[in-house]
Design brief:
10 strands, four-stranded antiparallel β-sheet, six-stranded mixed β-sheet
């Protein structure tokens, strides 16, 4: 059973940056199309970025040009570089496959506030 562990969140001022990391256990990570999701209080979880097994990326309009998703298959990891953060980016961030087929990890809290 693959397990996902997210890290890298924190409190940052508007305009700041954070880099989130997600490490997956299991031996077949490289075949998964992976995604970063977020869930703000009172809102549904949404997909903000995804990356295919060979590196093709897609972004939600709300983060396009500010966030960059990447992966390192050798390290079984996927990353989310977040720049020019806004208060509306405040949420718990999770990684999962593109179709959310794995058990959810605990997520990592990102708070953007002055």
């Amino acid at each position: 059973q693959v397990q996902l562990v997210e890290s890298g969140g924190g409190l940052v001022q508007p305009g700041g940056s954070l880099r989130l990391s997600c490490v997956a256990s299991g031996s077949i990570f490289s075949i998964y199309n992976m995604g970063w999701y977020r869930q703000a209080p009172g809102k549904q979880r949404e997909l903000v970025a995804d990356i295919s097994s060979y590196g093709t990326t897609n972004y939600a309009d709300s983060v396009k040009g500010r966030f960059t998703i990447s992966r390192d298959n050798a390290k079984k990891s996927v990353y989310l570089q977040m720049n020019s953060l806004k208060p509306e980016d405040t949420a718990v961030y999770y990684c999962n496959t593109r179709r959310a087929t794995l058990p959810w990890g605990q997520g990592t809290q990102v708070t953007v506030s002055s």
